[in-house]
Amino acid sequence: MSANSASPPRPGSLASRAAVSVVVVATFTALCWADATGLGGTRAGWWLLPVAVCVAAGAASEAAAMAWRNGLTLSPSLVGGVTAILPVVALVSAQASNPAAVIGRVALTLTLMLGLLFVVEVARYRPASQALPRIAASLLTISAVGLPLAFMVDLRQRGGNGLAGLLPLVSMVAVVKGGDIAAYLVGSRFGRWRMAPLVSPGKTWEGAAASVAASLAVAWLILDGTGWSEAVPLGGWPVYGLAVGVAGMLGDLSESLVKRELGMKDSGRALGGLGGFLDLVDALLFAAPVAWLLWTLGGQP
Predict the structure, then answer these.
(1) Which residues of 159-184 are buried (b: 16+ CB within 10 A; e: fewer)?
(2) Last residue of a domain, which of 116, 142, 159?
(3) Residue 77 belongs to what domain range?
(4) Within this chain, do residues 199 and 296 fall inside the same structural domain, yes or no?
(5) Secondary structure class of 166 (helix, strand, coil)
(6) How far apart are CA 172 and CA 3, in angstroms?
(7) pLDDT tens-digit series, residues 242-276
(8) Global confidence as pTM
């Protein structure tokens, strides 16, 4: 979650965020290495699938719990469990050569899950039980968290085997998180003009400008400056950095809107100083389908 706050961060808070970030980055890097090398004879994506499943279940459960604390009795276990199915379907469907076929199977699974939500509500129905709001909120949570994570899984599949195969997924994460860090550092030090004071008072235009600049710089470095792979997304690094970076900021603002409506500061405390799973991936949820589209339409030398 971006924190381009106009007020300086507390030292303790910054230290906690940094410590958890180191653990998260180290774990993700180790799993990426195992996945790229096919450790244990696994196919591409299988070492990273537990990350997608854990994040899907955790983020969706947190969203359901936030709704519960605000009077809408969603089931965190049901919503989290159903959401975690979508990235699994994306990986299992990876043998489909057409990316649209993979996402189509994910969409079919989501439709079946909607039917399951209705069956559950029919079984537990009582007058004035908020059945329709529960179904709507559950489906929104499952879609908003599960579908982007399915796109991320398929991004990994589009890259193929080997280190170069990580490029689509890693580039998306790096562009978004690079923008996140720049927004936090510049916004907390120099931020004066607030972007959306009623939604997220701490976010500033100075932080947003730094975020876009950093996203473009990271996109250039990874896609052009390192020679990692000859494959490029549609429009090359300028389009990729701008589109994915801006999508990430919109994702962060959207989660801020949800938390503002529900009266919450963080989605949870599972990740210590970073907050909850939803706080960690909010920007990625909007960026993933944008990155997937650009890599699907491009991706050739």
Answers:
(1) beeeeebbbbbbbbbbbbbbbbbbbb
(2) 159
(3) 45-159
(4) yes
(5) helix
(6) 19
(7) 999 999 999 999 988 988 888 888 788 888 878 88
(8) 0.89
